[in-house]
Amino acid sequence: MPTEAPAARSWLDTLRLYAQPKPLAMLFLGFSAGLPFLLVFSTLSAWLREADIDRTTIGLLSWVGLAYSFKLLWAPIVDRAPIPLLTRWLGRRRSWMLAAQLALVAGLLAMSHGDPSTRLAALAVLAVCVAFASATQDIAIDAWRIESAPLSMQGTMAAAYQLGYRLALMAATAGALWLAGEHGWRASYTVMAALVGIGIVTTLLVPEPKVAVSRDTALREQRVIDFLEAKAHWPRPLRQAGGWFVGAVVCPLVDFFARNGATTALLILAFVGTFRLTDYTMGVMANPFYLDVGYTLQQIAIVAKGYGVIASIIGVIVGGFGVASLGVVRALVVGGVLVILSNLAFATLAFTEDPGLLGLGLVVSADNFAYNFAGTAFIAYLSGLTNTAYTATQYALFSSLFSLPGKLLMGASGWVVDSAGYFVFFLYTSTLGVPSLLLLIWLTRRLPPRAADA
Hints:
Elements: H1 11-17, H2 21-34, H3 42-50, H4 55-61, H5 66-69, H6 75-80, H7 86-90, H8 92-112, H9 120-148, H10 154-183, H11 185-195, H12 197-205, H13 215-220, H14 222-230, H15 236-260, H16 262-274, H17 277-283, H18 286-293, H19 297-306, H20 308-326, H21 328-351, H22 356-384, H23 391-410, H24 413-420, H25 422-431, H26 434-446
């Protein structure tokens, strides 16, 4: 568990780290990762709500995002399988990044021609395809990020990733909503498809990381050799498929539990699975909440999203400094508390009869700051849990786990709002942040601060 004591570092020294080539590349790759996410999530929910789709249906359609939670199922393929021609040209990580980005362009262009009022099912299928391509891109980008920099730089890489990711979320919300209000949803999603080009150019320019396999990892790969020898009587294709499964799926899981111990590993997974419950369950109802309160798409774009860009950037930067100065675990605790408080602020906004644009701007800015501070610390934490020999599979395990419980719960978000109202809903989402904090505190007591495993 990465709970290392941070080395003393000035703010100026920390800022210089972001000017290095890899963190700069991570900024653009973070943008590419963040762009599609809300286009099949809250921005799509605004499109559906404007088309008079009921809130319960919107909540159910948020399960489109479950593709991100089940990416562990195909992460071993991204981790190990080559893509004909592309992998030889670009390498293992970049080839999958490019393939996913090209699929995103095609999917978003197809979505731009959708109509939820008459072809809701078709639009939902396209959204699933975009989410699948986006999740695949995430697998490859996460692996590239972890393998391209040492553990000491993962806080910087995480902050750069988060900054790019949040800028993309602003483009996919403020930008997409503004374009939709002025020119319609077709133009909005067409422009979003064009912005995927930022990721494509970056993928073509960045170098492929070089990964060294540790001695312990090499010994665990002996499981593959043992399997092939034991199954020598099997047909060759079946032996190869079985050997691939052992190396790509079994070894990464065995490695994680072996390095941490079974009990601690399960507690870590429990923490990972509960840390983002608040964000996911609240997020799908955010845009419907703004619209139901009476704000227009343009007001949401300018106030709720546009002003939030500044708070998001500040949250990412302060989160990066927090990891460097406080350490990963302390930064996680601070971030978790801030997220809970920001949801309570939404509850006060729902309780206020006429909150106005100023109230909306303050609450959303606080939420964006908290989300990004916590997110930067969380990414650095997850990065420290992986073994670079199994980066894609192990990180996909963590990222799938942290999103799955929240996405399962968010499907009922519309029902909670319809049944109890927005005030109770935001109180409910706030309490969802408590279990992860308790688990984190328990973990820190179980494992005192120590140097993180390289």
